[in-house]
Design brief:
The protein folds into two domains: about 180 residues, Lyase, Ornithine Decarboxylase, Chain A, domain 1; about 240 residues, TIM Barrel (Alpha-Beta Barrel). About 30% of the residues lie in helices and about 25% in strands. Helix 5 packs across helix 6, helix 7 packs across helix 8 and helix 8 packs parallel to helix 9. It has twelve helices and 21 strands. It has about 425 residues and is an alpha/beta fold. Bound molecules: ligand LLP. Ligand LLP binds next to helix 10 and helix 11.
Length: about 425
């Protein structure tokens, strides 16, 4: 993690972006985290607006030489204020359900700025997307194409549709988030794509917008992306040679981030691969990044509620666990965990766990840090993507509060759920 931009002993203005220490106190965009938490309580997600803006602008600048549209993947974090921020920063939206489409609309996106992706779209969802006239629907099967066509014709419309291709390329990531191999449920086999696109072209209710591929998430190697791009470029060129017009090439999301503080994949190199694919086909490019934009911008702040010794160290029990941040329990994911106020004491082996009655409710095993005490605050870093979005009410735990730090100030963007909120729909 970046240290504070000034020496620990000066009081000069700080200019640190994201999560950084000043002396022993962790800050978010220069705001003292302990101050925020004193008012908001724990567990709380904190987001650095400056980090989001920088990461979005860096990727956009890297793609500047290629006609493109960046559709932020709402599934990574669809908290309304953050989605609104993406729009004001110039992104478009990628939605994976009607719920995400409605959030995008409420965040001010026009239907024509929204892509609709997803492996299982219910009829009502397709009807809503067609009626709205979303920018494109990424279709996953021949059956779905037929259903979209029928819905559009019934409304006397032409729905813009891209075909999701499964290139059978290993994303070299966790199997749970790998989507582009033959045995995965996503898309249609590469070899079926040309015939399906021709058939789409002939349907009165469809406008063939393009081709789509999304290999997987948290990809740390650019190799697979290159292979998938080459595969889809081959299909696009063959169709072009036959005179089947396409508008865009959607190369999905999936760029990984570093979770251990080492440098992550280079957005410039990533953009170069995507740009070359677009140039090869003469099509405009669409990207659907989620994690790379918001992942490093968020931290989950939790309070220590118990500390107890075990034979090889200590269990440090927090008031946050798999209900707030599922990634470690679900994927064995690693997140750095750091004290909000540093103690100067010898490091001890800490197994940092949550309060949920599951042995998988672990946030970090065998972490070396000065033994925290009850009521200390810890921050779980790089939790901006797939953190709050995957939180649940298991054990009847209320969803955490969320706070956005922007321009030296902070505001609650989602208040902590109350028991009444949780029970609101129950009869
Ligand atoms: N486009 C499509 C079609 C997707 O399925 C996804 C992610 C994205 C874009 C955005 O991918 P990103 O740029 O965020 O990698 N819950 C998991 C990640 C699931 C990703 C699902 N699809 C995790 O916490 O690692």
């Amino acid at each position: 993690m970046a240290e504070a931009a000034t020496s620990p002993h000066t009081a000069a203005p700080r200019t640190a972006v994201g999560f950084a220490y000043d002396r022993d106190a962790l800050h978010c965009d220069d705001v003292l985290i302990a101050d925020i938490v004193r008012e908001v309580g724990t567990p709380t997600y904190l987001y650095s607006a400056a980090t989001i803006a920088i990461r979005l602008r860096t990727l956009t600048a890297a793609l500047a030489g290629t006609p493109h549209a960046l559709h932020y993947a709402l599934k990574a974090n669809s908290t309304l204020a953050l989605v609104t921020m993406m729009r004001t920063l110039g992104a478009r939206a990628d939605a994976n359900s009607v719920g995400e489409i409605e959030v995008a609309l409420r965040a001010g996106f026009a239907p024509g700025e929204i892509l609709f992706t997803g492996v299982g779209k219910a009829r009502a969802e397709l009807e809503r997307a067609v009626t709205l006239g979303v920018y494109a629907i990424n279709a996953e099967s021949a059956g779905e194409l037929e259903r979209i066509d029928a819905i559009a014709r019934a409304q006397d419309r032409r729905a813009r549709v891209a075909l999701r291709v499964n290139p059978d390329v290993d994303a070299e990531t966790h199997p749970h988030i790998s989507t582009g191999q033959r045995h995965n449920k996503f898309g249609v086999p590469l070899e079926d794509a040309p015939a399906l696109v021709r058939a789409m072209h002939a349907r009165a209710g469809l406008h063939v917008a393009g081709l789509h591929v999304h290999l997987g998430s948290q990809m740390m190697s650019l190799e697979p992306i290159m292979r998938a791009a080459a595969a889809i470029v081959g299909v696009a060129r063959a169709l072009k040679a036959e005179g089947v017009p396409l508008d865009h090439l959607d190369l999905g999301g999936g760029l990984g981030i570093s979770y251990d503080g080492t440098p992550g994949p280079d957005p410039q190199a990533y953009a170069a691969i995507l740009g070359a694919a677009a140039r090869d086909t003469g099509l405009s490019l669409i990207v659907e990044p989620g994690r790379t934009i918001v992942g490093p911008a968020g931290a989950l702040v939790a309070r220590v509620v118990d500390v107890k010794p075990h034979q090889a160290g200590h269990f440090v029990v927090l008031d946050a666990g798999m209900t707030e941040l599922l990634r470690p329990a679900l994927y064995g994911a690693f997140h750095r965990i750091v004290p909000v106020t540093r103690r100067h004491a010898p490091a001890a082996r800490c197994d940092i766990v949550g309060p949920v009655c599951e042995s998988s409710d672990i946030l970090g095993l065998a972490r070396e840090l000065p033994l925290p005490r009850v009521d200390d605050l810890l921050a779980i870093l790089d939790a901006g993507a797939y953190g709050s979005a995957m939180a649940s009410n298991y054990n009847r735990r209320p969803l955490p509060a969320e706070v956005l730090v922007q321009d030296g100030r902070w505001r609650t963007i989602r208040r902590r759920q109350t028991i009444d909120d949780m029970l609101a729909g129950e009869l």
